[in-house]
Design brief:
Elements lengths: L6 E5 L5 H14 L17 H4 L6 E7 L2 E10 L7 E9 L8 H15 L4 E6 L4 H9 L3 E3 L13 E6 L4
Parallel strand pairs: 4-5
Antiparallel strand pairs: 1-2, 2-3, 3-4, 5-7, 6-7
Length: about 170
Amino acid sequence: MTSSAALHLRPIESRDDGAIAAIIRQTLVEYGANRPGFAWADPELDRLSQVYTGPGARYLVAELEGTLVGGAGIAPFACHLDAVCELQKMYLGPLARGRGVGQALISALLPFASEAGYRHCYLETFGPMTAAQALYRKNGFEPLAQPWGDSGHTACDCWFAKKLERP
């Protein structure tokens, strides 16, 4: 667990786009997910600061002692239910893992999602990312038998959802 003084979360800025894209790509390579069907092929990967600007959207980056080490976002998600958001592009570089950074991001983003009026939060991940799945379960996300909607991430093989608390 990291001390709160060493960890700083803030909204993404255009100056962060290259660094967060590099962390995402590095992580995808590490897990063998550097191919179509994963975030690897997302056309907006290099401009996340522009993507998360609309209503109900937010992307936070995490800095440890001034170094950008990861991030995560919330955005609207279209599926069979109303008022659903997706926890998106949550990736942590090796320096951030096991230090409470992922928990801090989730703890900051889920209240935002509730306040934005979402009733459910959905996410997709990949089987080998077991530490991420444990974190999602710890935060009340439950596994799903199949994906919701069409995220375009056809290679993801693990899906989770959480009913959000009303503010």
